[in-house]
Amino acid sequence: MHFYHKLQDSNVDSSKKRYEDKNELRFSLRSLEKNAPWVNHIYIVTNGQIPHWLDLNSGKVSIVTHNQIFKDTSNLPTFSSPAIESNLHRIPGLSDKFIYFNDDIFLGLPTYPEDFYISNKGYLIYLAWVVPQCNPNCPWMYVNDGQCDKACNNVNCQFDGEDCVHNMGQFPIVSYEDSSFVDMEKQKLNEFEEFKKKVQQLFDKKVYGSIPRKQYQSEHNKTDKVALIKNLTNIINEHNNQVMRKNKVQNRKQRSVREKLSGGSGSFNIDAYSESLQYTNRLFNKKYGFKVRKVPAHAPILIEKEIMAKLQATFPTEFALTERNRFRRANDMQFSFSYYYFLMSEKIQKTSGEIFDDVDTDGSGTWSDREIRNVLTKMYELPLSYEIVDGFEAILINCSERQTFNILSTPPYERYIDSKLPTITRDMVVECSHLSQILRTKFGSVPKYKYEIIKSSENGHVTFRMLRSNITDVVIQLDEIREELKKFICLNDNLDETKSAENEVIRAILYDFYLSLFPNPSNFELPEESRNRFLYMDELNDWKTHHYRVKVLLCLTICFLIFAMFFGLLKKSCCVLFNKIFC
């Protein structure tokens, strides 16, 4: 490791805490046996190491080495978990769907396959907090929001999603370095509030004053009403922009306070994990559009081999680069984040005919008035107005009059008594270009894979704790976990390498905590007094090869001795028989 580390530049994450063993794997396996006995087989991926306590004769556990799964073995050895994760689906004998655990994840409660996949819902997605901001003054929600933000106009934030390019000369660039910005915004907000009150008073007087609403509608022409509606629309848009700017000012103040509390350094130190999140998020922005994404919760993740292969085919260069990185780097494809959001972002395009079939719930081959009502509720905001219903029916009538297609009779009970609609058939919808375009725009793009996002997973399903070299804090964190066990528990090691004395105490506290939850050895462990003779797969394989050769040689020797013995007996008998026949 040290040899390869010297060959790398400083932009790598090679912290010792990523390689230290605190008995996580042993107790993770105990939690699996206790809370998920339905698991068929467990594959432990290592660089060839064998835990001294692991029972290699167990039929449910196997050690898999990196050279068995890496697409390009010239990238070995590797010390990067993203590089290893990107090759997990290549484990020989692995099922099409498998669950990936980090060794610092435990099952605190009974867990079932339905916690990962339900046939009528699809994959269950466990998400946590929002992806960290791309710049100290720019959270991702500001990027591609229609306003040019100076703090976001940089490569890390993808140049504000090109907001500054599109809005050049139309909107002011919001600058947080301008000391007068806060006062200016306060003044604008006050002026806006006064203006809004005056317009609202005028509106109330016109519409809800002493003149009845019906009389007002008859006495005032449509031009006045249109102008009033446009005026209110402008007020609402301006108000939304002001609220956004006000939120930005408040966030700026809060960040300034945090920076002062931290010593005023203003630094923004993040590790390779956070940087790779940002990197992967930028790739997905470019591929699937800008949106606010969340970080996957620290929980096991169900992987389908076919989806993983398609993900890597979509980003071949990026995954090849990830595999070549021997240490964690900022340009790694973050594994769970990329898998989850690929699964959620992939779409398929439906044809007009397929959309028709989805609306035709009774399978009659025509649209009833009830089915048309169903589709309208999905196309427009509720409540549906008469104008919306009448306008859509006019489109259907026009399509029926302008197109030539096979005529079908309307099945009974599909039309209301006062309905004026003709028979709406599949051919009519498909051949009517205007209607088809409306339907494809609204319903044409649908998720390729079924999934359901588990909301507030950090509250109800997942416990994540970052352990630091503070004994009191660690004790409190572990007691909180004891107080309310959840299905998935992750204890992330962030101990300070310089505090060796505190770390030793924390190691002992952790071991006691593990024993409190999983005191009984699993069937994957050797007896307490036993240890594996070999701690590396190379040594074990060499011994097996040598042992096999010795067995073969011994078998050949025994066979030769048996043959020699029988040959001596047969030789004498053959000579006697030969003499009788020919002599």
Query: What share of the residues does DSSP label as strand, in percent?
Result: 5-15%
Gyration radius from CA atoms, angstroms:
35 Å
Distance between the termini: 81 Å
Mean pLDDT: 83
| Number of DSSP-assigned strands | 13
What count of helical segments does DSSP give? 22
- Poorly predicted sequence stretches spanning 5 or more consecutive residues: 169-185, 206-223, 257-270
- The share of residues in helices is 40-55%
> What is the global morphology?
extended
Q: Kindly give the count of domains.
A: 4
Largest sheet: 4 strands, mixed
Q: Structural class, from helix and strand content?
A: alpha/beta
Describe the protein's architecture and organization:
The structure is a single chain. The chain has 583 residues and is of the alpha/beta class. It folds into 4 domains: 2-130 and 298-339 and 454-517, no CATH class; 140-261; 352-447, no CATH class; 547-583. Helix content is 50%, strand content 10%. It has 22 helices and 13 strands. Strands 5, 6, 7 and 11 form a 4-stranded mixed beta sheet that branches. A 3-stranded mixed beta sheet has the order 4-13-12. The protein has a two-stranded parallel ribbon with strand order 1-2. A hairpin with a 3-residue loop joins strand 5 and strand 6 (122-130). The protein is extended and about 120 Å long.
Provide a brief overview of the structure:
The protein is α/β, with parallel strands linked by helices and about 575 residues long.
